[in-house]
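lol ok so funny story. i was supposed to be doing the assay writeup but got distracted and ended up predicting the structure for this chain instead. priorities right. anyway since i did it might as well share w the group, maybe its usefull for someone
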Amino acid sequence: MRYRPISPALLVSELTDRITAITGRRRIAVAVDGAAGATETTELADALVDPLRVAGHATLRISANDFLRPASLRFERGKEDPDSRYTDWLDLGALRREVLDPLAEDGSGLVLPSLWDPVRDRATRAERVELPEGGVVLLDGEFLFGAGLAFDLSVHLWLSPAALERRVPDAWALPAYERYEQEVDPSALSDVVIRVDDPKHPARYEP
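and the output, tada:
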């Protein structure tokens, strides 16, 4: 695979241009996918907010971590089960129903910014936010691709196996990321792939 070194600032600029170039959609869903705690999914999604707003797009930041299932379901097979991390932690149905479906052409535009507080293990009781036409949802998280979630732009932050092992804080979760790579191949499904072995010096995949 051929990668082009790119500064973080230029990466944000290029992604902003890519998002603003999307046409034919009332509202836009952008996913930034990567291994939790290892890649800078949150930082990159956060960095896109202001440039998109300057470009005239109302922008809503959402974290997949706020759409996890309750602890009783996530940890049914223990707190360090990689298969559960991969298949059972994220509430895909709620994410689709509360965030993505409202963005559809016939959707209401009423988006729920969060559902579940995983620290307190209780509902956030957040109120829905009305996203106007031309608005953008920026969603970051792990294991977002290959499950039928509809995104208008998909960005994957990729780590080499050595970097993944070095940077993921939960070593027990490594088999989950390996399974994701093998079964889903998120790089092949993504519109944009960024290598982040060194987060200060990312590189963009050039097909």
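Helices lie at 8-20, 41-54, 71-74, 82-87, 92-100, 161-167, 174-183, 186-189. The radius of gyration is 17 Å.
back to the writeup now i swear
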